[in-house]
Design brief:
The complex is a heterodimer. Chain A is α/β, with parallel strands linked by helices. In chain A, about 30% of the residues lie in helices and about 30% in strands. Chain A is globular, with a radius of gyration of 17 Å. The longest helix of chain B is centred in the middle third of the chain and has 44 residues, at about 80-125. Chain B starts with a helix and ends with a helix. Classes of the chains: A alpha/beta, B mainly alpha.
């Protein structure tokens, strides 16, 4: 059932890896709908399948079985080319650690994925995330600044969904709070669907919905 | 900013490694130029010698007879003038083929290094290539930009090689009194630059293939 009210819908989703003789069920029959414009915090211990959930939901990997619907569109039968343009137009990613291209400064990192180069828009996005040193290179940025620029880049093509895999993993608690607050503000102001994975329970106060994940399954 | 401009910026990384790759390509190009030019020189010499023999009837017959006599007395053979002329022309032409073959091998050895250099460069940038995938760049775009990077190394190497090699050949041509246009014709210079650049791009595709096809999970997990 396609529901356009859902930003991201996962239907009977499985992801199974084979490691020699061992079979790993990274995602086990996930049925879940993330409402459009919602802010979601997926919490679970390391190895529970959070990163796989982000990669499969973001079309970076194909599921073993099941369907991923984004803004009501079923992505299962999409060709690789279509998946790539879908990623470029609809999904912004943020990962733990360095997300930026080291040879490019902040503004160039933002304009890189743009379908048509628009420096004014890039500056506007950087201002939105509170970063003003446009010419700064990633190796001169703090972890928090790297994540600010990554967040700006994740919105660059008017993306409707941001998938963030442990974006606060390298930050101390204060910085993590600031980055989550920023994402929450963007969710409220821009209406973006945001899904963040974390293994830090302390961050759970920032959420519409806290979702627990264990052994490849979403629990709530 | 497009992904091809990123390739240009990436050349500034690993400066020492890229410098040595360019140096090796330049050496290959210099040796190729020198040996191909030698072949062109020998060819021109054979053609000029033949036309001299044709146009200077008795005088040239005398020269050929004297050479034939010397060879016959030295080798204990009994060859006539026409056999000697045919044999010498054949020998010189074969020499040109051998020179060209050596030039091609040296050139290929120089340029094959691009696989190694690019392999190291891309392996260090696994995560970055993974990040580019998450930005929606297609496999084709990534392959093209990485192979473009290899092509840029080939282009720089060939330009440096052509400048240094041509300078040496110009000095040599002046020294032995052969016109420069015979030793280093324009088609040779343009041909060497195009072949080196295209070959570098094709060879660069090989490590690019591994880099682009690497598992996204592994790429994003690498530092």
């Amino acid at each position: 059932m396609n529901n356009i009210e859902n930003g991201l819908e996962l239907l009977d989703l499985w992801k199974v890896y084979r490691n020699g003789e061992e079979i790993i069920h990274a995602l086990s029959r996930i049925n879940y709908s993330f409402e459009r414009g919602s802010f979601n915090l997926v919490h679970g211990p390391s190895g529970c399948g959070k990163s796989t959930l982000i990669r499969v939901s973001g079309l970076l990997e194909k599921p073993t079985m099941g369907e991923v619907l984004i803004n009501g569109k079923n992505t299962t039968e999409m060709s690789q080319k279509k998946r790539n343009s879908f990623i470029r137009d609809e999904i912004g990613f943020i990962f733990k650690g360095s997300n930026l291209i080291p040879t490019l400064n902040a503004i160039e990192n933002i304009t890189l994925p743009m379908t048509s180069k628009n420096t004014e828009k890039a500056i506007e996005l950087l201002e939105k995330v509170g970063f003003s040193d446009y010419k700064k290179f990633p190796d001169k940025m703090s972890f928090e600044e790297v994540q600010r620029v990554s967040i700006a880049r994740a919105m660059v093509n008017n993306h409707s969904i941001i998938l963030a895999d442990e974006p606060t993993g390298d930050l101390h608690t204060g910085e993590a709070e600031i980055i989550l607050k920023l994402l929450l503000d963007l969710n409220k102001k821009e209406g973006l669907t945001i899904i963040i994975t974390t293994n830090n329970r302390k961050l759970s106060k920032h959420h519409d919905m806290l979702i627990d994940m264990r052994d490849g399954t979403l629990l709530s | 900013m497009d992904i091809y401009r990123l390739s240009l910026k990436n050349l500034r990384r690993n400066k020492l490694r890229n410098f040595f790759a360019i140096l090796r390509i330049s050496m290959g190009v210099i040796i190729l130029l020198v040996l191909v030019s030698s072949g062109l020189g020998v060819n021109t010499f054979v053609k000029q010698a033949n036309s001299y023999l044709d146009s200077n009837g008795n005088d040239s017959q005398e020269i050929v007879s004297s050479i034939t006599n010397q060879i016959n007395s030295l080798m204990g053979t009994n060859l006539n003038n026409s056999v000697i002329v045919t044999q010498l022309s054949g020998l010189l032409n074969n020499l040109v083929y051998v020179i060209d073959a050596i030039a091609s091998i040296v050139f290929l050895v120089g340029i094959l290094d691009i696989i190694n250099t690019m392999g190291f460069n891309f392996n260090e940038r696994k995560r970055e290539i993974g990040i580019l995938k998450t930005l929606g760049f297609s496999r084709r775009q990534l392959l093209m930009s990485l192979s473009f990077e290899a092509g840029l190394l080939g282009l720089l190497g060939s330009i440096i090689g052509v400048i240094v090699g041509s300078a040496g050949l110009i000095v040599l041509a002046g020294f032995i009194g052969i016109p420069t246009s015979i030793l280093i014709p324009l088609w040779l210079i343009i041909g060497v630059i195009i072949v080196t650049t295209v070959l570098s791009m094709i060879l660069g595709l090989f490590p690019s293939w591994f880099a682009v096809d690497s598992n996204i999970e592994e790429a994003l997990a690498s530092e």
